[in-house]
# Entry
Amino acid sequence: MLRYHEIVHQTFPQKNFTLFINIHPNILLDKNYQSGETLTLLNSLNIEQEQVVFELTERSAVTDFEEFSRVLSHYRSQGFRIAVDDIGSGYNSLKTLIYLKPEFINLDRSLIHDINEHPAQHQLLTVILNYAIQSGTKVIDEGIKTKEEYEFIQTVGIHYAQGYAIGRPAEKLAHAKSPLMR
# Structure
């Protein structure tokens, strides 16, 4: 953790970064999870809750949406934000969007693959994007591998993107070399 702390604060001395943390929904529901552990860790790293987005993996179904929504409200009241990962590939994607009201939606690579060539994928992306805009949610396209995919998502108004067509992962943390899409 000390190494991570030093790298983050050397790269982003003004604290102008957002940290996405992948987390399985069951972790947030676990009754054995010690209350305050996350805040203690963030305080030790000098990171504010408002800088943190819990990125919920869609690899398993959320079964009790009311309870899960209550838990997320607790974290949001502390300043954390929520992202739902891999929309388009996992369980309960549409229900998840409606009940959990994430601040960010990460689209699965399978939805974006060759989207410029497949009208049905384009239609689905348009529906998700319209819903996101109406609900104040930002959309992140993951896994952009080709110039054509990148150009296509720019034309439809996707908020953020990541993938090899934009840049390879860096070995060290760094500020983005090009501005975010919007």
Summary: Strands lie at 19-23, 52-56, 81-87, 104-107, 138-141, 160-161. The two ends are 32 Å apart (CA to CA). The longest helix spans residues 119-135. The helical segments are 2-11, 25-29, 37-44, 65-77, 93-100, 109-112, 119-135, 147-156.
